[in-house]
Amino acid sequence: MKVLGYIQLATAISLLIGQLITRAHLIIKSEWRAYVEQNRIKYQNLLNSKKDEGESYSNIKAKDLSLLDARMILLTQGPDANEFMIDDCEDPNKRDFGHVILRLEYLWSSFSFVLSNGTIMFLIIYAVLSVLGLFVSPIFYSMQLLDVIVRFSS
User: Is the domain of 54 the same as that of 112?
Assistant: First the structure.
C-alpha cells in the first residue's frame, strides 16, 4: 500500500515540476505585463509630472539611478526596461537592477505571480494531499478525486 503512495507522491511532484518548467516563464511575463499596465494607470500623475520636469532616463542604467527612480521604472515599465538590461552580455535576459532590494522585489513579485496561478496552486495542493495521504491518513487520497472534476468538467 505504501508503494502506491510513493508512486502517487512522485507523480504529483513530477506534475508540479513539469508545469513549473514549462509555464513559469510565461506566467511571469504575462503577469508582469498586467502589473505594469495597472501601475501605469496608478502612477500616471507622477509620470506626467516627471515628464513635465524634463527628467529622461534614456541611455542611463539602473545602478546610476536612485532607488525610488529605479523602482518607479520597474513598476511602470517592467523588468524588460532598457535601464535594467546589460548591454555587453551575450544573454539577452540578463538584468542589472542596480539595487539589491529592487532585485529582491522583482524576484518576490515573480514568485508570487507563479504561486497565484490557479494551475500551479492546484498542483501544490495535489502534492500536499499526496504527502498527507502517505504519512497521515489514506483518507486524504479521496480528496485527489477532485482532479477528475477539474480535468473533465463537462
Answer: yes
Whether the CB-CB separation of 68 and 43 falls below 8 Å is answered with: no
Please indicate, yes or no, whether residues 91 and 58 belong to a single structural domain of this protein: yes
User: Which candidate, 72, 77, 73, places its Cα nearest to that of 36?
Assistant: 77
Same domain, 15 and 78: no
Burial tier of 126 (Cβ tally within 10 Å: 0-12, 13-18, 19+):
buried
- pTM recorded for the entire structure: 0.81
> Does residue 86 share a domain with residue 49?
yes
Average pLDDT (33-47) is: 89
- Predicted local distance difference test score (pLDDT) of residue 105: 96
CA dist., res. 103 & res. 119, Å (int) = 26
**Which structural domain, as residue segments, surrounds residue 76?**
43-116
Q: Structurally, how many domains does the chain consist of?
A: 2
